[in-house]
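hiii, so i know i said id send this last week but things got crazy w the move. better late than never?? heres the sequnce for the chain we talked about at the cafe, plus the structure i predicted for it. fair warning i was half asleep when i ran it
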Amino acid sequence: MRKTRFIILFLLLLVILSACNDDKTSSFFGENENWLVKFNISKKNNLFEGTYIVEYTGGNLEELLNKEIFYEVGFKEPTTGGVGFLNDEGVLEGRVSKKSCYSDCDSSELVFNVIIDGKVENIMLNKK
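okay and structure toks below
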């Protein structure tokens, strides 16, 4: 009887703790004439981690293979970013993290900018 109470209390505690967990994952997708972007965001304890796959779909891939690709991403306006290079298939993959997304965390739209040689291409990403 005592063991049964302990098990029930333990299970109840687990249910309560899991209900308070604010982990959340969202997927976003967008494209323009030159780029296809998939972006996944995971929120865990107020830390936001994003993984992205950016694929070049425009012409003349060889011209971009050795160029630095700067990118920016954020809700409504870019708030974080980085730099990388396309692989031989024209794909840039990576991860970003941020401690806060300010007040726009539940937006259904992300802004993703690709910057090459100072030219900015804007790709709007919508939540799937």
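btw The two ends are 49 Å apart (CA to CA). thought thatd interest u
miss u guys!!
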